[in-house]
Amino acid sequence: MRKIKRVKVLGWRWRRNELRRHSDVVEAWIVLSAWTFAMAAGTVAGVAGAQSVAAAQERNAAEHRPATAVLLGTVPSAAAGYNRVRATVRWTDAQGTVRTTTADVKAGGRVGGTVPVWTDGRGHLVDEPASPAVAAARAVLAGTGAGLAGGLFVLAGGRLIRLRVERRATEQWGQEWELTGARWRRSTG
Fold it and tell me: Which of 124, 160, 173, 183 is nearest to 21 (CA)?
């Protein structure tokens, strides 16, 4: 069996010919518009997403303060490849209140040893702020994800519109074929 070679002609919907239907031109404009709007929407969503995450990272870095805590118990050595473990610590917050809770600390500490911790404005323990490289990577990933989601959303909308136009064109083609078929039956019968 011989393989049929299919030839693709770029821009065939834009060229003038007898076989081109009005729906072909409408579809071409829908595809062009959808891709243009998808690029614009993806860019805007990506920039907005990246700026939002970067602002949140900066806000966290500004609100988190370093503090020194005292270990209240012996910290077990690293287990199963983890170099941080949960241990009970005590520290004094900015208002002078002594607080005690558990925190992630480096493995292998001794009772009375000091460990660095991070607190928020209310004196609660929080995670260490992200380094500038990690914050930038998070902003880039969030921007990329938001941009892709925004662009794909617009492309999906364009596809739905295009499917509706194709369905309408197929219905019109069926109606025209019924009229033509009726004329052919009369002339042959």
Answer: 173
Cross-strand pairs, 101: 89
What are the pLDDT tens digits along the chain (189 aa)?
577 777 777 776 667 777 778 888 888 899 999 999 999 999 999 999 999 999 999 988 888 888 888 888 777 666 666 677 788 888 887 778 888 888 888 777 778 888 888 888 777 888 888 889 999 999 999 999 999 999 999 999 999 999 999 999 999 888 888 888 777 776 655
C-alpha closest to that of 91 among 78, 82, 103: 103
What does the angle CA 164 – CA 178 – CA 18 come to, to the nearest 5 degrees? 70
Between the alpha carbon of residue 99 and those of residues 72, 79, 96, the distances in Å are 12, 27, 9
Cβ-count burial 48-67 (b if 16+ within 10 Å, e if not): ebbeebbeebeebeeebeeb
Q: What global pTM score does this model have?
A: 0.69
Amino acid at 24: D
Q: Considering only CA atoms, which of 74, 70, 53, 62 is closest in space to residue 145?
A: 53
Q: Report in angstroms the alpha-carbon separations of 159 from 29, 154, 162, 173.
A: 12, 9, 5, 21
